[in-house]
Amino acid sequence: MTGIKDVARELEMSTATVSRALRGLPGVSDETRQRVQRTAKQLGYVPSPGAAGLASGRTRTVAVVVPFVTRWFFASVVQGAEEVLREGGYDLLLYNLAGSGAARHRVFEGGRLTKRVDAVLVLSLQPTDDELTRLTALGRPVTFVGADVPGWSTVRIDDEAAACTATGHLVELGHRRIAYVGGPGELDVTAPNAREAGYRGTLRSAGLAHDPSLEVDGGFTLPGGIDAGRRLLDRPDRPTAIFAASDEMAIGVLRAARELGLRVPHDVSVVGIDDHELAGFFDLTTVAQPVVEQGRLAARLVLDALAPGAAKGGWHPAQVILPTTLLARGSTGPPPTA
Amino acid sequence: MTGIKDVARELEMSTATVSRALRGLPGVSDETRQRVQRTAKQLGYVPSPGAAGLASGRTRTVAVVVPFVTRWFFASVVQGAEEVLREGGYDLLLYNLAGSGAARHRVFEGGRLTKRVDAVLVLSLQPTDDELTRLTALGRPVTFVGADVPGWSTVRIDDEAAACTATGHLVELGHRRIAYVGGPGELDVTAPNAREAGYRGTLRSAGLAHDPSLEVDGGFTLPGGIDAGRRLLDRPDRPTAIFAASDEMAIGVLRAARELGLRVPHDVSVVGIDDHELAGFFDLTTVAQPVVEQGRLAARLVLDALAPGAAKGGWHPAQVILPTTLLARGSTGPPPTA
DNA sequence: CTGAAAGCGCTAACAT
DNA sequence: ATGTTAGCGCTTTCAG
User: Fold this and answer.
1) Structural domain boundaries enclosing B23
2) Smallest Cα–C1' distance to nucleotide C7: which residue has it?
3) What average pLDDT does range B171-190 have in this prediction?
4) Is residue A333 domain-resident?
5) Quick check: B42 CB within 7 A of strand C?
6) What is the pLDDT of residue A230?
7) A30-42 and A4-11 are packed helices; what angle lies between their axes, rounded to 10 degrees?
């Protein structure tokens, strides 16, 4: 393995100069830099991130912690983050919790991240106090996506507002009996509570009664949505509209409606949140949120915090809230004129 | 940051012993090991992978190269791999090509992987000769998932056989005019060719005419499948059955059929490959392949190759071919009795 | 602008 | 069973 030393020897200069030249640091004559780069390439020199990290304390690696890689939303955020990190010269270490609380504990506990990464990106998890303590102990920039963590860098949408938009859309169409499909999901993820709050708040301000039996758990999965839809729609006093806190659940509701022979939106309206890649396919009305973009932004925040001078130069955690848009498609309409 | 040295000093022993004790190496008295572990924990010692890697030449990190993280199939394989790697004490460095040939080139070229990972997992890419040369130069175990690369470790299904199963199912149902939706997709991925070969081979052995106009490109995406479906079904001499080389495309075809007012399977039968998470939802007949399992297996192969003694102890690249199963659901049936 | 030298934190012979 | 001693390959003062 040819190293920096070989390049230095070949050029009869010090490894310090080679190192500086290769990293584009100032204080190297243009000519020297040229020569170094040329011989480095010619000798097939490849830097050793491990050694560089050991010497500098920077690993040029960022950990990304995701609840489930297989879910479209998270995979998309990862994709956005990867894009930006890679471009910034950082590697991405993936920690997939796969819905397991044990895995979650393992990642945050016991310094699995210490001395390993320069920063951490946490997706959609509402951190516990203990986790926050450990993350603080890391002493590294951390950015949360999809969670509101006061004092920390976050990138998210206003989940409550998004839920208001969705519910409000139904209210405006004239619906008065509106159900909610949400639920906690498997890990302690942020979105559910805020979305439920938005739903309830909107009902209240519209002066609509709040019927707890119209709030059911869909587990944030498609099958869960089907189940929830069946339960809601297969009753005499069924709602005229359903707001599902995620598109996957909303699609499940659509399916349940079809099974029960109900026409959408004639018999029942359905609205979701996300603008999932399949939402258009199902002609689902939804409140769209930028997904890949949240990953990109979070990665950028982290890179900013890592940039030289950020520590001294007055860098502060940033809270970015991205806008959402109501995409009125074919799954919502006025209530049946009973 | 407390290091191995601090632990050694505290215990008044050498760092070598501490290192050995902590890594569970033989040659340490049980009592010493206990003491070391206790003080290490108590001092909040956390190992530095970078330093260990520098000294040992092993990074305990595996690179996983995926064409698209956002696609269900790849995300699932990654999930399986992550699971096994994490358990084996390895970190997973994610390289997402996001369909970009440039990104692909960047990863394999210029030693982005050298000195950085102990092994590489490559998903569904058919490596070029140049890439194989570079991977060989890495001098590290490499395992391919979903590709047939003679001489290298591979985990895959028999794509040709899977396509035969799918097409054969249609033939047995009595179809004689069977279309194929496939296509190259964005990167040079392996599956397409083999599946097309399986389709053609089955037609031939069944003595059915091969009509090139019945082979259309679906780009391995859902929208591509819709397009393809429209083109195939919106013609007077439309096929009575369609085999799509992936479930996502098959679902697109289903959609196209519905748009055109065709009933499935009464007017047209559709079969896919994968058993995508939504296949059941759409009642799609498909040839199921184990997905997460391919990731797990590939990771295990890589860990085996990395295990101490593998190099000397007669370790050979392994070719694992996993079985596929026809899942006959509601999207296939006998042809219309014209 | 360039060089010398001291590590970064750990592992791996080689001793004892 | 434990200690000693070199590094691993790079970055980073500190000199010049």
Assistant:
1) 4-47
2) A55
3) 90
4) no
5) no
6) 97
7) 120
